[in-house]
């Protein structure tokens, strides 16, 4: 994709050729917007040779940054921002947008991006601002007006994402209260932590951006005073996104804790019930064993006296009486012993 050069005026926006940039930069009566798309091979050359930006600032635009950054120079500043883009399985991509803000120009540099992210995502905010200028809805009078519109669009998009996640959080909380989560507890827990992580990522991005613009409001001396005040407005906007995401994340954390506590309580009660059942079964088995032992006494005695071998009292009444007394005494003794041991 080619580098886009726009000449913005009160009449709208005109496209210019990249070759016209050196002459346009020297003019102080025009507003120049240079938009460099993702992975443009000439970005380093344009930033270094045409604009003469510092090598560290150029390197930050060529390489991927994982945190927001700010570099302030005598007549321009570089801000490195990120916009959240939710990918597969809740993974949040950091879509980078670098801006060189000068006295008569704004250079927006997109990327680098993760290869799995659609490159058109990087131009969502700049594209919407360009359409507003072309339709006459927006008439920026300075590079900062243009940058303010782009960053405001980014903040609004983050607010919309948090609002969408808030709706999801409400649905998840309703599933917990209506006990619908028990149908698929593993999937429900994954949904909970996916939304929680997305809120965390948006919160982190907003916090970094807020810090960047708070510093820009203090350090960008080349900006007029009224524009420095508007820089602080952007910092407040990012801070508001951060706070709302924090509050929503706290709410979701409460839902997670409530669900976990209720699940743990149910598991504890179930374990106690299982333990009580096991104890009862053990008691029953002891009683059965005890009665089996008692019943075995007459079986053993009658078996002995039922032998076809002569013994004292064999075929005599005294033998019958003796065997009966032995059964009663042994069985009674065994019964009393088992009762003493609380098996019966």
Strands in their spatial order, largest beta sheet: 2-1-3-7-6-5-4
Rg over CA atoms: 41 Å
What's the CATH superfamily of the largest domain, by name? CorA soluble domain-like
Helix content: 55-70%
CATH topology of the largest domain: Beta Polymerase, domain 2
| Morphology call | rod-shaped
**Weakly predicted, low-confidence segments:** none
Q: What top-tier CATH class of the largest domain fits best? A: Alpha Beta
String of helices and strands: EEHEHHEEEEHHHHH
Number of helices: 8
Strand content: 5-15%
Report what the structure shows.
The chain is α+β, with helices and mostly antiparallel strands. It folds into two domains: 4-265, CorA soluble domain-like (Beta Polymerase, domain 2, 2-Layer Sandwich), CATH 3.30.460; 281-340, no CATH class. Helix content is 61%, strand content 14%. It contains eight helices and seven strands; from the N terminus they run E-E-H-E-H-H-E-E-E-E-H-H-H-H-H. It has helices at residues 21-26, 43-50, 55-62, 124-135, 143-177, 185-219, 225-305, 317-340; strands spanning 4-9, 12-16, 31-36, 69-72, 77-86, 92-101, 105-110. It has a seven-stranded mixed beta sheet, sandwiched between helices. The chain is rod-shaped and about 140 Å long. The N and C termini lie far apart (90 Å). The mean pLDDT is 85.
């Amino acid at each position: 994709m080619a580098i886009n050069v726009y000449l913005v005026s009160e009449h709208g926006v005109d496209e210019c050729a990249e070759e016209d940039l050196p002459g346009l930069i020297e003019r102080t009566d025009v507003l120049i917007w240079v938009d460099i798309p993702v992975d443009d091979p000439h970005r380093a050359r344009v930033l270094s040779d045409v604009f003469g930006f510092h090598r560290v600032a150029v390197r930050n635009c060529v390489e991927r940054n994982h945190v927001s950054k700010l570099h302030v120079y005598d007549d321009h500043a570089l801000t490195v921002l990120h916009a959240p883009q939710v990918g597969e399985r809740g993974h949040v991509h950091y879509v980078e947008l670098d801006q060189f803000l000068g006295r008569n120009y704004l250079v927006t540099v997109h990327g680098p991006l993760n290869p799995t992210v659609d490159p058109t995502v990087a131009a969502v905010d700049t594209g919407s601002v360009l359409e507003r200028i072309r339709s006459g809805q927006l008439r920026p009078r300075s590079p900062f007006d243009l940058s303010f519109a782009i960053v405001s669009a980014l903040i609004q998009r983050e607010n919309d994402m948090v609002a969408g996640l808030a709706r999801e959080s409400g649905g998840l909380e309703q599933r917990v209260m209506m006990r619908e989560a028990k149908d698929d507890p593993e999937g429900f827990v994954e949904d909970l932590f996916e939304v929680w992580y997305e809120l965390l990522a948006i919160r982190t991005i907003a916090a970094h951006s807020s810090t960047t613009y708070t510093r820009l409001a203090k350090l960008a001396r080349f900006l007029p005073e009224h524009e420095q005040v508007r820089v602080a407005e952007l910092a407040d906007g990012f801070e508001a996104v951060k706070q709302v995401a924090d509050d929503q994340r706290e709410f979701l954390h409460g839902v997670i804790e409530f669900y976990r506590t209720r699940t743990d309580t149910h598991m504890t009660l179930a374990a106690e019930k299982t333990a009580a059942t096991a104890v009862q079964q053990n008691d029953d088995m002891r009683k059965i064993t005890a009665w089996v032992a008692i019943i075995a006494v007459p079986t053993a005695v009658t078996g002995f006296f039922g032998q076809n071998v002569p013994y004292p009292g064999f075929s005599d009444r005294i033998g019958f009486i003796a065997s009966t007394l032995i059964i009663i005494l042994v069985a009674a003794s065994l019964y009393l012993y088992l009762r003493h041991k609380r098996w019966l």
